[in-house]
Amino acid sequence: MDFTHLPHEFRSIREKMVNRRSFMQRTGMAGLAAVAAPLLAGAFTPPKARAEETDSPAETAEEAAQAKDTVAEIATAALIAEDLATTFYYNGLVGAVIQDPNLAGPGGSADNVSSGGNFGNVNYIQAALTEEISHANLLRSLLNIPNAAGDPVQTFYFPAGTFDTIGPFLGLLDALENAFIGAYLNAIQEFAAKAASARQRESNHQLFSGGYSAEELDYLAKVSASIMGIECEHRVLGRVISNSNPANNRNYETNDGITAVYNGATSAVVALTPFLTPSTGPGFSLQTALMNQGSVSIPVSGAPPAY
């Protein structure tokens, strides 16, 4: 790319950027960079220049599970997660927990925050509900599911008391969002790997067995990253509500122990399983959440990234 032909505002921003070396020295990151440099150099060394490496049995199992995940399976797992999140946030807005002072306050509700509540915090939860519904709608369209009645899971189970008081509610919010972030991190990696495989097949004039072009798989990786960014916001805003400081307490998000999306012993599906199991606690209906969400959700702007 010829950087001299970038739009003016991009060139201006680039020209005003702080010198990288002085920035790192001022922020104390020079030592970190020195440690990271050889690791990054190793990561980007061409394969032929590296010493022969043998994966551990655990790594081999993880890679096999990732390779086994199909596009439909990844999208299905993500849809279940988004429906779970929809059900979770809706019931947080209509449950007794909404009257906590950190939310709508005593005697308050999602659409009528009391003087003893926090209007902004309630808005965080309302917006999260809208966003999770939007994500599910997108995934449903990818899977050619005409409406939410056709989704694979219609009832989700939460530990007793989840929607009664703020502690259990925010504790589960944090756990769920960490799992969602881990799931999408893996989805990005898996779509990227599938895109590379598809590109290799295309260069050899072969059809990719999954039926998706490299460009389509690249786009799915981009969409996954776009959704993951919103889940990261939810995690941090949950910490804002709980007054956990700093709320943005990570340099990098984690995969939360999840190493594949659909298949394998440490997949996102395994992480979701407790919420699909009646022994976990009371069941809550997805359809109830969707039919009534209009009374507690708020509009949120934005659309999936351009293809």
Q: How does this model look, in words?
A:
This protein is mostly helical. It folds into two domains: 1-53, no CATH class; 56-295. It is built from ten helices and two strands; from the N terminus they run ααααααβαααβα. It has helices at 8-16, 20-26, 30-43, 57-68, 71-94, 119-142, 166-203, 214-241, 268-272, 286-292, and strands at residues 155-157, 283-285. The radius of gyration is 22 Å and the shape is elongated. The two termini are 20 Å apart.
Short description:
It is built from 10 helices and 2 strands. It has 307 residues and is an all-alpha fold.
Give structural attributes:
single chain, 307 residues, mainly alpha, two-stranded antiparallel ribbon, 10 helices, 2 strands
Would you spell out the secondary-structure blueprint of this structure?
Blueprint: H1 8-16, H2 20-26, H3 30-43, H4 57-68, H5 71-94, H6 119-142, E1 155-157, H7 166-203, H8 214-241, H9 268-272, E2 283-285, H10 286-292
Antiparallel strand pairs: 1-2
Work out the count of structural domains. Answer: 2
Low-confidence stretches: 1-41
- How many helices? The count is 10
What is the string of helix and strand elements? HHHHHHEHHHEH
Count of strand segments: 2
Could you describe the largest sheet, including whether it forms a barrel? 2 strands, antiparallel
Strand content: under 5%
The pLDDT mean sits at: 86
Separation of termini? 20 Å
Structural class call reads: mainly alpha
Work out the radius of gyration. Answer: 22 Å
Shape: elongated
Strand arrangement, major sheet: 1-2
As a percent range, the share of helical residues equals 40-55%
